[in-house]
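Below is how a single chain appears once it has passed through the pipeline. First comes the sequence as given, then the structure the pipeline wrote out for it. We keep one example in the README because the format questions we get most often are answered faster by looking than by reading.
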Amino acid sequence: MTATSPPPHSDADPPVTVAASAQIDPTANIGDGTRIWHLSQLREHTVVGADCIIGRAVYIGPGVVIGDRCKLQNFALVYEPAVLEDGVFVGPAVVFTNDEYPRAVNPDGSLKSSDDWQPVGVTVREGASIGARAVCIAPVTIGRWALVAAGSVVTKDVPAHALVVGAPARRVGWVGKAGVPLVEGPKGRWTCPRTGDGYVEVDGVLNEQLH
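Resulting structure:
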């Protein structure tokens, strides 16, 4: 596929929109209704789900998998082998790393090749959001509906629904599906002030309250 030739779709499917300046590898798989803006690059065997928005100058590395209804804002760098589940938000200039011990050269001074290191990835679970200019140091997993504050540096796994801030990122609260900080009640119970949904915290783990 080229920037001027979106992948085939039926008349019933919403078309894929790709800016003329974007670079899309022919092996990339892009879902219906996804929009890819200027200067973005999708490398070999990338998978992007349906109804996603890929902003300006986003880089998505080989084999990266992105679910449906995700938003990647301008200048985000998503290095392989990252996996983003459905409904993930990635803010402007976010970086997902993929090398635990980065070097340009080997101990003998030779230039490193793809055979000289083992990529490790960032996994972002359903509904989670990564704020602008945050850096996620692989290998880490961001839990479902978690919120990473802008400018944070994530060096360890983030629990589901956690609100983390700082460098290194630390949990300072909980958030619900609306992304709003939860209000603490008695006996480990938390409530979303926007939706009224309830949550229960047990041993540092937050779960939705069953109705």
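The chain has no helices and 26 strands.

See the next section for the split statistics.
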